Structures are given as C-alpha cells and as structure tokens.
C-alpha cells in the first residue's frame, strides 16, 4: 500500500530517446542518480516527511547536512553548495488564485537529478512536463541544471502574469470625482500590499539567481541564470515604476481633495464675512431699549435695509477686487 509520501510525490525520468512518468515508489525510485545517462525529476508536495527524506538522502549518499535543511520550513531564500550537489531554499508566492500565499520550496540538484519539494499542493510546471513528454525544444537534450532553470523561469513568468492581472494602477480611478470613502482607502492599501508582496518575492528570487550565477558545482552550468536575472530585474523595475506611479497618484488625489476642502472653506468664509456686519446691525436694532431714536423714524426700517445692502455690496466688491473669489 502506497504511503502518503508516495501519493504526494511524482517522478519523471527522461532522456532524448524516452521518458516515464509515474507516482513515486520508495522501492523503485528512491535512487535519484541513474547510470543510464537519464535525468530524474522528483516532485514532492509537503514538507512533513522526515523518515522518507532521511531514507532518500542516506540511500543516495547525499550530504547528511541536507536532512537538517529539509526539516527546517522557515529557511527563506538560500543557496548552499555541497559536494557535487546544490541545495536551494526559495520562498515564493503561490499565484494559483487571487489570495496570494507564501510557500517554501526546496531543491536538491545534481548533474542528473532535480528533487523539488513544495510546501503546498499545486504548481505551474505542467507545461514543462508536457514539453518533456512531447520532446519539444532542447529540454530532453540537457542536464538537470537546465531543468532547474526552466522551473525558476516558470516561477518568474507566473509572477509577471499574475502581477499584471492583480496590479493595474488605472483600476484605482484617481480622479477629482473620487471620494475618499473607507472602501476606497481599503482598496488603495490592498493594492499597495499586493505590490510589496511581489516586490519582496522578486527580490528573494533575484538573490537566488545571483548566487546560482556564481556557484561552482561539478556538472552544473551557470550560463542560463544570467538571462533569468535580467528577466527578474525587468519585473522589479516594473514594480518600482508602479510604486512610484501609485504614490504619485495618491499624492495627487489627496492634493485635489485638499484643494476642494480649501475652496469650500473659502466660500463659507466669504459668506461669514459678508453676514457678520449685517448680523451686528440686526443685533443692535433687535435690542429692547426704550430710548432708541431710530425706532421712531418713519423710514427707519428701509434706511437700515439700505445700509445693510450697502455694507454687503462694499464687502463683496472688496473681495472681488482682491480676487478672493
């Protein structure tokens, strides 16, 4: 009966002439290095298999330091050179859906095998598998270093595609008609958080590729990774540009909102200044003193209205002359 590890592990063995693809068997497939000049790609989903990891590492006479590395789920991004092997720990974003989640991946690489260990189920590597099955391109003519390059390139391409889907600056409609509602502010913060997630993941992957470009492991060629570094730099440059654009639009948006508020306050202030003297006059003649001569004037009411009108008109003319409105 197959163990949980075997159910969550697949093996592809290929050469230019042939290939096979099947679930992993501890009995038949635990020997990663072959003597028939084929390349073996083992893909494991899940990190909690200490016994199986130990059996594979010791059974293939790999560096036992790998056991300590494979059992640490929080390594982040590392490249460690071992004797005739290479260990990679990569912290990536899973981009299968809109809820971006971090995932730890491990790679144990030699000249004739790649053992890929993923924390969670699911990946975007089916197109690589299909190229192997259909013998497209040169992948079945190359060694394990080229397979590793293909896997890392696929991660970068997925970042690019998902980034374009999730981070479209124009979607945030920063116009003078947009109101700073709580929903709008949450949307802005979510957009910023998504951008920084991709930025962090991109920097981590670039650090890995930079280190791969300078490793010295027998049978491992580094020429592929210079191109990959350029691809990651292109993504990071786009992210930096979008961050600047987003910050610029946010600043512009709040500048417009501040200008609107200033215009409203100016209008209210003008109305207040116009009515202050009128209120003063109305307050005086609203007092209930017995001896107020103006109250006995025949045209006193109309004269007061005229004075109030002249005061308001003069105030408005002064504001107009000073171009306050």
Automatic annotation (TrEMBL):
Membrane topology: Multi-pass membrane protein
Pfam families for this protein: CorA
Residue stretches spanning the membrane: 268-288, 300-319
GO MF annotation: an example: magnesium ion transmembrane transporter activity
Reaction(s) the record says it catalyses: Mg(2+)(in) = Mg(2+)(out)
Keyword terms, alphabetized: Cell membrane, Ion transport, Magnesium, Membrane, Transmembrane, Transmembrane helix, Transport
GO cellular component annotations of the record: plasma membrane
Entry-linked InterPro entries: CorA_cytoplasmic_dom, CorA_TM1_TM2, MgTranspt_CorA/ZnTranspt_ZntB
Location relative to the cell: Cell membrane
Family statement: Belongs to the CorA metal ion transporter (MIT) (TC 1.A.35) family.
Record-linked PANTHER family: CORA FAMILY METAL ION TRANSPORTER (EUROFUNG)
Function: Mediates influx of magnesium ions. Alternates between open and closed states. Activated by low cytoplasmic Mg(2+) levels. Inactive when cytoplasmic Mg(2+) levels are high.
Name of protein: Magnesium and cobalt transport protein CorA
Organism listed in the record: Flagellimonas ochracea
Top-level taxonomy: Bacteria, Pseudomonadati, Bacteroidota, Flavobacteriia, Flavobacteriales
